[in-house]
From TrEMBL:
Name the UniProt record assigns to this protein: Sulfatase N-terminal domain-containing protein
Any one GO molecular function term: arylsulfatase activity
Domain of life: Bacteria
PANTHER family, per database record: ARYLSULFATASE, ARYLSULFATASE FAMILY MEMBER
Record-stated family: Belongs to the sulfatase family.
Domain named Sulfatase N-terminal: residues: 1-120
Length: 127
């Protein structure tokens, strides 16, 4: 199964319930937090479905970003940073291309581990 999930991404579209939950945060933080929470909920729904139909143990689930933070106006001029790395979206510096990936593959990748390996998911990352 392949599902290209474009969230969280601008325009930030949190639900009213989640926007109310994060109402104490300033804009755009509350909108982004609500959208990330909705993304988390949707991914949880997918994982629950895989369990329900009995294919979770034989399904690789990968969640990753296509770029780091954006400095574009519609992204509120990059209300984030790339930490110690130079660059952002549209940059080939590490701050533009280092992205997190969350991989779930029961029996192969143990749960609750953090690894800092560099992998290529553009064709040979899992071979």
């Amino acid at each position: 199964m392949y599902w290209a999930f474009n969230a969280p991404h601008y325009p930030y579209q949190g639900t009213t319930k989640l926007l109310d939950y994060y109402k104490g945060l300033p804009t755009p933080g509350k909108e982004y937090a609500a959208f990330v929470s909705k993304t988390d909920e949707n991914i949880g729904n997918i994982l629950d479905y895989l369990d329900e139909v009995g294919i979770a143990d034989n399904t690789i689930v990968i969640f990753q970003s296509n770029h780091r933070h954006s400095l574009e106006e519609r992204a509120f001029w990059g209300d984030d940073n790339s930490g110690p790395y130079r660059g952002s979206k549209f940059s080939l510096f590490e701050g533009g291309i280092r992205v997190p990936a969350i991989i779930r593959y029961p029996g192969i990748f143990p749960a609750n581990q953090v690894r800092v390996h560099v992998i290529n998911l553009a064709g040979d990352g899992l071979v």
